[in-house]
Amino acid sequence: MTDTGTALVADEQAADSRAVARTRMDRAINLAERFGIFAAWIVVIVVFGAIEPSTFLTLATVRNIVGSDAVLVILGLGLILPLTAGEYDLSIASILALSSVTTAVLNANDGMPIIPAVIIGIALGAFTGLVNGVIMVYFGIESLIVTLGMSTVLGGLVLWMTNALTISGVSSGLVSAADHTIAGVPLVFVYALVLTIMLGYVLHYLPAGRRVLFVGRGREVARLSGVRVDRVRLGVMVTAGLLAGVAGVLYTGVSGSANPTAGATLLLPAFASVFLGSTTITPGRFNAWGTIVAVYFLATGTTGLELLGVSAWVEQLFYGAALIGAVIIRQLVRRRITSGPRRARVPAQATAQ
Amino acid sequence: MVTPPAGMDVRRVGDDGSADTGVPLVRLRRMSKRFGATYALRDVDLELRGGEVHGLVGANGSGKSTLVKILSGYHDPDPGAIAEVGGEAVDLPLRPAVLDAARIGFVHQDLGLVSELSVLENLWLTRISQMHVPLLPWRDLKRRGAEILRQYRVGLDLDASVTELSQAERALLAIARAAATVDGRLADSADDAEGRNAPGVLVLDEATVFLSAIHRELLRRIVAHVTAADGAVLVITHDLDEAVTLCDRILVLRDGRAAALVERDQADRAALAGLIVGQTVRPASVDGDRPADGLDAGSGGAVSRPVTVEVSGMSSVRHGVSDVSFRASPGEILGFAGLAGSGFDQVVSLMFGARRAEGGSLVVGDWQSPLPDLEPPAAIRAGLAYIPAGRGSEGLLLDLSVEENLLSQVSDQYLRRGFLRHRRMQARAQQLVKDFDIRCRGVEVACAELSGGNQQKVLLAKWLESRPIALLLVEPTQGIDVGARAMIWAKLRELAGSGMTIVCASSDHEELAHLATRVLVMQSGRVITEISGPTLTKTAITAACLA
To answer: Is residue B390 part of a domain?
Structure first.
């Protein structure tokens, strides 16, 4: 063999070993990305546990976290489909408030039996989602603007329905359907878990879930591949409204009353959880399991802070920072996914058409 | 009737010979540009003298746009190149400040307009980005903008959004903007402009494609106006008549090299066409190069249902296609060729419903649809597959994995008892990666990571998975390496051999000569020539496009 031949072989071997090293490195990074949140979670638990062992490390705290944030899980799940399809639903928390208040008003004030009241509450959520979707698709308006407007409209509607007062006296049937515990686990958490499994199944195991993803990652490509893009966009908004409706009804059940301002405080935590969730389990994609984990990770943090006696404003700080941090991590993950070794880095040229 | 724009002197300065002396306004020497292993441009000189109209012609891929991009400072030429502006050596790549000082104004092929902005904003686009003032002097800009449009006789509303303009009006806006740059009317203030009297250079890159005869006349006046002020005009065009009537000298590029520099008195259409295609181009379809019909169906397997695809009366004002009818038979590769703007590529996208035609109908076997109602899902159900020119923007989801892209058309088939069979899908994707020789680190990596050629293979494989009976392609091998190109060509022939009907629009005439059984050449939205049989060569296609 000639010298150059040997050199070539040596080069190839070096390249091979580099490739192996890179693969190993990739795998490590991949694992860290997917499950890093659990490590962070453990750290949070250990820290608060060490500071506040008597109050933080109790079953009551765990039960409190699990129960009170199950509604947030469902709301977050509602955001996953629109976000995957590249749409924003800023009205989702207001839909929750609408459904919550509607069920409470119909049942407590108007004396309607609880089951039809619940059905109407949920249906109203889905209908609002449909209205969002129709406006988006038929008038060609950005979801961000449509749902921003819708959110304020619903906010006003809810204040009108309740005279800005909390509605109490909701049927105990709904309360126990939400808050009853089985082996210490509140039912509302079971619902959240079931919905997580269902959404995870849709996204991962159904062709429909893939189509939603295609629309989100390239609307024109999806259209030319035969996906009925408008139908998908309409569908995700209806699903978001439906899940928000379910969350709203359960919210009424958990608290036994309907608070007209509930919507305002849940919107940001829901977005923070979904975006944080998209950096874990299947990094770079909005996913159901990531969302439920993120909700409880964030809830652990806020509960710990509350127990420390920190003022309520810290919670806002915490969720806001979590959202921004999650979005940054998500961006980094996506950049890593889409910038392979062979991709030439072309300088951005002036986009002029 | 168009009258000469106010204040424009249509006298040709070149006529008295005075402009030929003196220093050239711009001189580019030994320009080479290599992309990978191929030279897009090799050792080309370009000299623009005051008072002259200089033409630049050549077939697609001859290096015209590379040369223009060097002139606009977008490309940095390979080492060894020398540039002089106004007799002084300047650094390469050419910097915006140098271009500004020399008053070089461009009308690019894509016009360089921002469609969401108004006419006024587009007019001042570059200038605004360079202004360092706390408040933009809108009133002043508007007054001067109106003056510019009046000066060049461009009747546009300054407040109109560019989206509302027709293609021709957009071109006129871009031309007015470039002319104003050359005249110094876009300089910081009007006084300043009169002070500096350096002649400028107007570069027109396929600026007339969308213009009507009247508008072309207007453009001629603007050209005359620039040369009258001792400026130079560089005209890049496919229209040889235009080149002959307009230009004093014409540089012909072929395969990246300067084939000839033709003086005005020696220039005629036939001579130019001969220089563009070259005398020595061999017919691409030599014996043995092309598999015999019906053979070579081996690995692909026969198409389930051979069909004839027929289009009749296809029309779309919006996409520049009028009354196009044709028929493609099973086993045939029907090619479409034409210059940019001729509609040759639109025909194929209209056939799939990718864009909407305003009239006509499509027949695929015993299925038919009026074209205005055609949507991609229906076209897919009818057995069509569409491979668009934009791999990233229309064909593939670049940040999704190779597997997801490969199986995007067929995921329904992997649903068993309510669950997608992920392991099977992965295995199938791996098989496809092997069959189509797609080079990637694994089927789970993002498509963005792949080279252009491999992305194109993914795109082809993705659509073939849906078992189409007819395949529609636009620029199937644009911008990809030789190996991938050969592989895709072989695949297409194999598919045709197995009875598939293939319609392919390409501006690569070598490709059409190599692949197609028949080529329809388009001009101004109509089919003007059909080439087939032994006369089907690269040269013949290019010549027909330029006819």
So the answer is: no
Q: Are residues B30 and B175 in the same domain?
A: yes
Residue B58 DSSP symbol: E
> Is residue B391 situated within a structural domain?
no
Encode B188-197: b = buried (16+ Cβ within 10 Å), e = exposed.
Answer: eeeeebeeee
Q: Which residues pair with B529 in a beta bridge?
A: B521
Of A206, A221, A226, the CB nearest to B395: A221
Last residue of a domain, one of B409, B439, B466: B466
Distance CA(B340)–CA(B317), nearest Å, equals: 16
Type of residue at B490: A
Query: Is residue A8 in a domain?
Result: no
Which of B377, B400, B450 minimises the CB distance to A217?
B400
DSSP label at residue B279? S
The domain total for chain A is: 1
pLDDT of chain A along its 353 residues, tens only? Answer: 444 444 444 554 554 555 556 667 777 877 888 888 888 899 989 998 898 888 888 888 888 888 889 999 999 999 999 999 999 999 999 999 999 999 999 999 999 999 999 999 999 999 999 999 999 999 999 999 999 999 999 999 999 999 999 999 898 899 889 888 888 889 999 999 999 999 999 999 999 999 999 999 999 999 999 999 999 999 999 999 999 999 999 999 998 899 998 878 899 999 999 999 998 888 889 999 999 999 999 999 888 888 888 877 888 888 899 889 888 888 887 777 665 443 333 333 333 33
CA A80, A81, A85, A90 torsion-angle sign:
negative
Q: Output the CA torsion A78→A80→A81→A87 (10° steps).
A: 100
Domain hosting A230: range is 37-335
Domain check: are B452 and B311 in the same one?
no
Of A196, A256, A237, A200, which is closest to residue A72 (Cα–Cα)?
A196
Q: Are B458 and B486 contained in the same domain?
A: no
Q: Is the dihedral of CA B387, B393, B394, B398 positive or negative?
A: positive
Cβ separation A204–B354 shorter than 8 A: no
Taking the C-alpha atoms of residue B204 and residue A298, their distance in angstroms, rounded to an integer, is 59
Specify if B393 maps to a domain: no
CATH number for the domain spanning A216: value is 1.10.3470
* Rounded Cα–Cα distance for residues B181 and B185 (Å): 6
Position A163 in a domain: yes
- How many whole angstroms separate alpha carbon A159 and alpha carbon A170? 18
- The total domain count for chain B is 3
User: What CATH number does the domain containing B71 carry?
Assistant: 3.40.50.300
**Per-position DSSP letters for A249-292, written without gaps between them:** HHHHHHHSEE-TTHHHHHHHHHHHHHHHHTTSSSTTS--HHHHH
Q: Is B359 helix (H, G, I), strand (E, B) or coil?
A: strand
CA distance B195 to chain A (A): 31
First to last CA, chain A: 56
- Domain housing B124: 13-277
Select the residue of B110, B379, B388 nearest A353 (Cβ to Cβ). Answer: B110
Residue A5 falls inside a structural domain: no
Domain identity same for B210 and B297: no
Residue to test with chain A: of B399, B405, B414, B439, most A Cβ within 10 A:
B399
Rounded to two decimals, the ipTM of the complex is 0.83
Domain membership of residue B61 (yes or no) is yes
Query: With 0-12 CB in 10 A as exposed, 13-18 as middle and 19+ as buried, what is B364?
Result: buried
Distance from CA of A238 to the nearest CA of B (A): 22
- pTM exceeds 0.90: no
Distance from C-alpha of A15 to C-alpha of B226, rounded to nearest angstrom: 58
Note whether A124 and A99 are within 8 A (CB).
yes
Residues B390 and A223 sit within 8 Å (Cβ to Cβ): no
Domain presence at residue A215:
yes
The span from the CA of A277 to the CA of A269, in Å, is: 12
